[in-house]
C-alpha cells in the first residue's frame, strides 16, 4: 500500500501525511508476534488503514486541514487511534479533509483539493474526501472518517465505497477534534460492508473519557454483515422516505434509486412508503445548530495553546485576532460568524432555540417511522460527484449535498451508504438508516444489497 500511495497519490492527493516509518514498524511488530506463534490480536491485525486528519496521533501531525494547526503534533492519541493500534492495525497516514470538517468536497482544505479517483476532474465529496479517495484508489483497504452532517456517507457515495455513521455515542469522540459536538460521530469506511463491520467492532464501544459515549456493548455488526451476505431480506420492512428522493435530486440519481428499490424487493424486503414531514427543515436547523457549536468549539484556537501564532500584534487580543484571521479559511470564518450571531442575546431563542425544537420534531419523525419499519432508505446524495470548482464559491449549493444525510445526525440515529451503481457513469450510493443502536439490521441490509 505504501508503494501504491507512492505511485498514485500525486494525482489523487488523498493523504496529507504518510507515516512510512511508523507504518512499517507497526506492520513488523504484527509479523514478529505472529512468527513467534502468538494469536493475532484481532481479525484486522496487520491490515493498513488511512486515518482522517481530525484524530489526534502522537506519531504524526494532526492538522484538521487547517493552517492554524499546521505541523501540530498532539501529545496524546485519540481513543479511536488507540483502539486501532491495540488491534494491530497499521496506520498508513492522515487523510485530507475540508478544514475542521466543514464542507462537502474537500476543496476547503488549506492543503489542496483531493481528486475523485473515478474522474480526477471531480470532487470526492467531503469533508472526508481523503479517506474515501484512498479507498477508491486502492491506497488503503480501510479508513476512518467522521460524520457531522454526512462527511462519511456523502464521500462514500461519490467514490463507490462503503461509509458508516454509527449511532451518536457509539464511537468515542475523545481526541477527535470537535466540529459540532452534538452531531460529530466517528465511523468506519471500507470497500465492503463486512470490512466496515470488522472495523466498527474495533473502534466502537464505551469510553469513559467521552461523556456522551453510550455504556452498552457494540451491536453485533459482524454477525449481521455475515448474515446479510446470504442475500435474503425476507421478513424485513424497508421504509422509503417520501421526502428524500424527489425534487432536488438529479434524474440519474432517482433512476439509480428506483433500481435499488427493485433490488431490495428482489432480496425479499417489503417496501413501505413512509413520510417524515419535518425532514425538509433539517438543513435550516442544522445550519443554525452546527455553526453555533462551531463558534464555541473553535474559540480554543486562540494562538496561545496550539499551533499557529501570528508574529504581529501589540496585545494578546491582537495576536489572537491576527492568528485567527491568518489561520482560518473562509468557510470556517463564515460559520464562526453565523454561529456567534445565532447565539447572541436577543437572537438565541429565535434561532438556536427554534432549531433545537425542529431537531426534536425530526427525532419524532424517525421514531414514528421506525415503529413501522426496520430500516429507512434514500439516495445518499442528490447529485453525482460534481466538477472541482463548480460549487466552491456557492455555499448554499455546497450545503445542499447533505440534504439526505443531515436528519440522521440531528436525531443521533445510525446511517450508512453502500454503492448502488452508476448514474452518468459516476458512482452513487444508497443510504440505509436505522434506529439508535440498531446497526445490526442496517449492516444486514447493506451486506445483502452490495
Ligand atoms: N458537509 C456538511 C457540512 O459542511 C457535513 C460536514 C461533516 O459531516 N463533517 O457541515
UniProtKB/TrEMBL annotation:
Catalytic center residues: 52, 127, 151
GO terms for biological process, alphabetical: translation
Keywords, alphabetical: ATP-binding, Ligase, Nucleotide-binding, Protein biosynthesis, Transferase
GO CC annotation terms, alphabetical: glutamyl-tRNA(Gln) amidotransferase complex
One function term, GO molecular function aspect: ATP binding
Domain of life: Bacteria
Transmembrane segments: none
One Pfam family here: Amidase
Broad enzyme group: ligase
Known EC number: 6.3.5.7
Annotated Amidase domain residues: 1-440
InterPro entries: Amidase, Amidase_CS, Amidase_dom, AS_sf, GatA
Catalytic activity: L-glutamyl-tRNA(Gln) + L-glutamine + ATP + H2O = L-glutaminyl-tRNA(Gln) + L-glutamate + ADP + phosphate + H(+)
Coiled-coil region(s): none
Classification via PANTHER family: GLUTAMYL-TRNA(GLN) AMIDOTRANSFERASE SUBUNIT A, TRANSAMIDASE
Its biological purpose: Allows the formation of correctly charged Gln-tRNA(Gln) through the transamidation of misacylated Glu-tRNA(Gln) in organisms which lack glutaminyl-tRNA synthetase. The reaction takes place in the presence of glutamine and ATP through an activated gamma-phospho-Glu-tRNA(Gln).
Family named by the database record: Belongs to the amidase family. GatA subfamily.
Subunit structure: Heterotrimer of A, B and C subunits.
Protein name (database record): Glutamyl-tRNA(Gln) amidotransferase subunit A
Gene name linked to the record: gatA
Amino acid at each position: 500500500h505504501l508503494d501504491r500511495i507512492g505511485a498514485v497519490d500525486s494525482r489523487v492527493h488523498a493523504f496529507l501525511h504518510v507515516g512510512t516509518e511508523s507504518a512499517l514498524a507497526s506492520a513488523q511488530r504484527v509479523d514478529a508476534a505472529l512468527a513467534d506463534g502468538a494469536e493475532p490480536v484481532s481479525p484486522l491485525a496487520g491490515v493498513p488503514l488511512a486515518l482522517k486528519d481530525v484524530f489526534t496521533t502522537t506519531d504524526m501531525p494532526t492538522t484538521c486541514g487547517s493552517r492554524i494547526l499546521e505541523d501540530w503534533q498532539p501529545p496524546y492519541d485519540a481513543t479511536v487511534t488507540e483502539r486501532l493500534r491495540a488491534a494491530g492495525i497499521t496506520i498508513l497516514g492522515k487523510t485530507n479533509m475540508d478544514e475542521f470538517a466543514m464542507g462537502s468536497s474537500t476543496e476547503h482544505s488549506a492543503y489542496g483539493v483531493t481528486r475523485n479517483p473515478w474522474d480526477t476532474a471531480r470532487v470526492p465529496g467531503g469533508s472526508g474526501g481523503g479517506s474515501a479517495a484512498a479507498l477508491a484508489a486502492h491506497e488503503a483497504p480501510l479508513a476512518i472518517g467522521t460524520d457531522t452532517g454526512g462527511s462519511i456517507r456523502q464521500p462514500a457515495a461519490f467514490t463507490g465505497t462503503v461509509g458508516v455513521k454509527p449511532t451518536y455515542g457509539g464511537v468515542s469522540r475523545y481526541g477527535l477534534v470537535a466540529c459540532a459536538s452534538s452531531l460529530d460521530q466517528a465511523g468506519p469506511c471500507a470497500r465492503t460492508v463486512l470490512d466496515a463491520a470488522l472495523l466498527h467492532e474495533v473502534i466502537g464501544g464505551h469510553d469513559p473519557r467521552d461523556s456522551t459515549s453510550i455504556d452498552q456493548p457494540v451491536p453485533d455488526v459482524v454477525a449481521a454483515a455475515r448474515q446479510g451476505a446470504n442475500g435474503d431480506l425476507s421478513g424485513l420492512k424497508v421504509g422509503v422516505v417520501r421526502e428524500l428522493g424527489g425534487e432536488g435530486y438529479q434524474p440519474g440519481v432517482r433512476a439509480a434509486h428506483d433500481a435499488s428499490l427493485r433490488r431490495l424487493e428482489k432480496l425479499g424486503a417489503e417496501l413501505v412508503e413512509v413520510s417524515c414531514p419535518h425532514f425538509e427543515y433539517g438543513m435550516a436547523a442544522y445550519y443554525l445548530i452546527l455553526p453555533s457549536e462551531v463558534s464555541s468549539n473553535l474559540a480554543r484556537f486562540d494562538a496561545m495553546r496550539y499551533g499557529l501564532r501570528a508574529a504581529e500584534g501589540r496585545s494578546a487580543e491582537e495576536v489572537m485576532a491576527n492568528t485567527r484571521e491568518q489561520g482560518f479559511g473562509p468557510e470556517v470564518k463564515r460559520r464562526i460568524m453565523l454561529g456567534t450571531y445565532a447565539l447572541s442575546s436577543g437572537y438565541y431563542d429565535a434561532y438556536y432555540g427554534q432549531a433545537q425544537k425542529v431537531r426534536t420534531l425530526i427525532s419524532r419523525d424517525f421514531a414514528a417511522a421506525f415503529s413501522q419499519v426496520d430500516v429507512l432508505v434514500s439516495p445518499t446524495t442528490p447529485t453525482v460527484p460534481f466538477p472541482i470548482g463548480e460549487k466552491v464559491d456557492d455555499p448554499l449549493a455546497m450545503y445542499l449535498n447533505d440534504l439526505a444525510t443531515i436528519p440522521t445526525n440531528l436525531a443521533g440515529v445510525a446511517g450508512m451508504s453502500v454503492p448502488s451503481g452508476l448514474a452518468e457513469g459516476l458512482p452513487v450510493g444508497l443510504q440505509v438508516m436505522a434506529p439508535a443502536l440498531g446497526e445490526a439490521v442496517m449492516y444486514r441490509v447493506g451486506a445483502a444489497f452490495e
